[in-house]
DNA sequence: CTCCCCGTCGTACCCCGGTACTACACCGAC
DNA sequence: GTCGGTGTAGTACCGGGGTACGACGGGGAG
């Protein structure tokens, strides 16, 4: 039996959660809190498996409450359930030690699955936030292949000397017209070079080519 | 209608996926591949919304196939579905550009929800992996508190929080369309933000904005 | 010598990016 | 209450960027 504590300042929201959870025969609601301080007290008393934690509550908010509950070393897991997936506090909640972050407009089944996952030690994140998380930290993910950071980056290996030259000035923000003028070329020639650079490096457009130029240290930040 | 391509070397597995997907009236299977090479070819032909990608396949595996499909700039999203959640290649798959990672023993509803999330530009990660992801990178999560303490480059001083967020993803090479999708905005809104960013920073176009993002360390080389 | 890569240039075409507006809801400051 | 900043969204327009072709001279490798 999974014991759950509901922490939300909106009574109707608590009621909805309680109805949903009580309809499951493997879950039971052991208490309701309307602010962070109350949540901490009830966790200390009941030691629930999971806390459904709202972020925006009067007095002590859900983030700080999460932080303090986690700090006690209690086995209670915190699942943050808030209204907006773009809430800036989402990151803070996870950093505070929450085991999950879901949005309130999620399907009831998703919420229930999230509670069960969190209760069993796993973690869940709303898809909309997962996207941003991955985008922000994809480059920090460990790689099974040893990351090579050679002076000659393999991503530039197939470029000719001229193409590398063009990529450098692209990385400095020049337009095709400017490149043509300053390098005494026809703009069509510049376009040909740019096209080949994109094809060889896999960059989609000159923006990604600029990023590649920085990542490979072909150009360096000012 | 969400179009899906199934890439798995086990015929029975493909059959199971196909039966599940075809039972949904908002999904249709546009093809099946038994290895990575075939998957790439079928993506190029059908441009499906989502690819259900197995990792372990003879010849070209799912990771490399993902990498190459993503590199084409095609709008196709890759959802990796594999047998073992402990598979070391999971990280590689996400780094290769996959929009999600699920395990095959997930509930059918989870799989369907994952496909829909990925098709709409979001991302999904299996709870068991999410736990490990958070544990490993929790300390790298941005904090709204620390963000305020960061010494600000004067060139970014006039930008609002939202504009800084947009500039960050511009610095990661996203197109306006992608920004709109992944941040759940209208493209016109994105253009408004981009226009204000350029006006405030003096950047001529998004290319120079990327350079500015690097120079001010709003984004850092990989 | 012949082949092929490289660098050059051209045309045609389409789409994305950027600009120039307007508009509206929200919210905090005055 | 009014005002301004912010975030959202829309329409219309145009130019640059990127693609898909083809073409040609030079030069090194076979």
From TrEMBL, chains A, B:
Q: Does the keyword Transcription apply?
A: yes
What organism, scientifically named, is this protein from? Answer: Streptomyces flavochromogenes
Q: Which residues does the UniProt record annotate as the domain HTH luxR-type?
A: 152-217
Asked if the record carries the keyword Phosphoprotein, the reply is: yes
Key words, A-Z: DNA-binding, Phosphoprotein, Transcription, Transcription regulation
Taken from the record, one Pfam family name reads Response_reg
Q: Which InterPro entries match?
A: CheY-like_superfamily (IPR011006), NreC/VraR/RcsB-like_REC (IPR058245), Sig_transdc_resp-reg_C-effctor (IPR016032), Sig_transdc_resp-reg_receiver (IPR001789), Tscrpt_reg_LuxR_C (IPR000792), WalR-like (IPR039420)
> SUPFAM superfamilies given for it?
C-terminal effector domain of the bipartite response regulators, CheY-like
4-aspartylphosphate modification, residue list: 54
The protein's name in its UniProt record: Response regulator
Query: Where in this chain does the record put each Response regulatory domain?
Result: 3-119
Q: Which PROSITE patterns match?
A: HTH_LUXR_1, HTH_LUXR_2, RESPONSE_REGULATORY
Q: Which domain of life is it from?
A: Bacteria
């Amino acid at each position: 039996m999974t014991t759950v504590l509901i922490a939300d300042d909106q009574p109707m929201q608590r009621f909805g959660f309680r109805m949903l959870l009580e309809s499951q025969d493997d879950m039971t609601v052991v208490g309701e809190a309307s602010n962070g301080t109350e949540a901490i007290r009830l966790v200390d008393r009941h030691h629930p498996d999971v806390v459904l934690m709202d972020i925006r509550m009067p007095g002590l908010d859900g983030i700080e409450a999460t932080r303090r509950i986690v700090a006690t070393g209690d086995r209670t897991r915190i699942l943050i359930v808030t209204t907006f997936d773009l809430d800036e506090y989402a990151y803070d909640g996870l950093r505070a030690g929450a085991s999950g972050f879901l949005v309130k407009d999620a399907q009831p089944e998703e919420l229930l699955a999230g509670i069960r996952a969190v209760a069993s030690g796993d973690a869940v994140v709303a898809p909309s936030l997962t996207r941003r998380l991955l985008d922000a930290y994809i480059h920090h993910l460990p790689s099974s292949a040893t990351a090579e950071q050679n002076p000659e980056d393999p991503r530039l290996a197939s470029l000719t000397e001229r193409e590398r030259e063009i990529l450098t000035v692209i990385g400095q923000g020049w337009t095709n017209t400017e490149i043509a003028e300053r390098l005494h070329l026809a703009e069509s020639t510049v376009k040909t070079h740019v096209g080949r650079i994109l094809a060889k490096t896999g960059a989609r457009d000159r923006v990604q080519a600029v990023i590649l130029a920085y990542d490979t240290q072909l150009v360096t930040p000012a």
